[in-house]
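Pilot study result, target chain (489 residues):
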Amino acid sequence: MTKILENNRKNALIAIRDLLAKEVYKLAVIKQYPQEFACIIEIYTDISRTFQFLEKYTDSETISRFKEELLNCVIIRPPMAELKTRLQNCVDDLKRSTEEPDDELSSQLKKGVNGIFTRRRTFQSRIPHRYPPALLIHWYDFISVYRELLKWENKNGIRRVWDDTFDIGHVTQITAPVSVTDHIRAYDSYLPMSFHYATEHVAIPENAWYRNVAPFSPEIPEEITDELIMLQIQNNYSTERHVEIKTELNFSVRLYPEMTQAHVDEIVEQYRYQLTRGLNANLDAEKQLACDQSAFMQSSSTAKLKEPDFTDLRLLQSARLIKIDNLAQGIKYVYGLALLQEAYLEWHQDKSSAFSWCTWKKRTGQRLDMLAEKVAEEIETDVLHKVRENEDLHNIRLPTAAMIKNSYDDVSLEIQKHIDQFQRGRLQMQKRLNPTQMRKLMGTPEIQLSQLHEEDIDVARQRIAELAHKGKTASVRRRENGSFVIVWF
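Predicted structure:
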């Protein structure tokens, strides 16, 4: 049970890292690309309305996955061959989920998909997507998320629930803290590395010892009985008559400047995992090749190498998503997001599809410390009033306004990192500079239009011409984050 609880807390940290990495990315997207985000929301609501008829055919989760994949295809526009395959796969998955797919369903699906692509044929995405665009349709109330995480931490993810399936009363259930977008993975979630084993195929001899012995014979040591039974079952049901001996492990990694210590740690652990797995597989193969009891016992008694735990591997993978070292730190980030939501986000809803989302708004004159006080009060009300009365809350320490403000500062830094990456190498026409910033940039080297991104050259040329018509001398300069702006005097 201790190991189960330990892994559950590791999985919780993985889940929170995943959630928060996605949230700061989404917030950076809607702040940097508000117009394109509005178009993506418009496309998704169009998809939702078009396929409302599916509710009479299948369950809501299947419909959601279908709509998400369709949205991803419309936004990303993969090559035609891949696009056709992906669309056909998601249509086939949807049909399989229905009890009796009919010709009318097929006709409506074809008409709906064609209509969506026809209406959105001119759409072109400028967002450098790090996740499938479907991530942008998932939004939360962060005070509610904080409450649920607090409940989870207080109980270590364990709860007693009534078993409806077997009618055996209450059972212990181990839960994940968050799981809404688990199915959406970052495009760079897989490291640029590859493993390949050089192998030899060796025929299993007809006189292999395990084939010709009775596992429960008195002369058979008890400690190898289970192994013999498993090998004989495998022999009876498998058509394979050879074993694969791994003789060499080839490993390659593509190096790139953005690699961090977290990437290196994960690469080393993945290599260790592949190496130990290969050596342990060879030990199993040697048992099948043994022609007498002595050789079998020698292979069986050789201790297997310890393979890295799968949960630990996932923990390493999540470490490069966002710098959060433990569960408590992750929970603090959530109430920082709650303050940001109060200060800068505005909720919207499409009534016809019951779909809700947030957009970035300009903050009103109310000071952040006052908003932090408001969020602290809302958290206290939400946690104390909405958690069930029988929940044990005596160890819970709710955040103060100062703690919320500090967490907000951390969250803002993470969002800005994404924005800096979005802006690097691109012309920022929406950036407003004050006179001091303008004078400072005028002292930096001028950037030639040919050095700009190909999509920005004509935009910059047109803006410089407009300013020249007004009697101003304008040019392009590079900002500290690597983006470009137009300055003039």
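One observation from the pilot: Residues 424-488 form one domain. A full batch analysis is planned for the follow-on phase.
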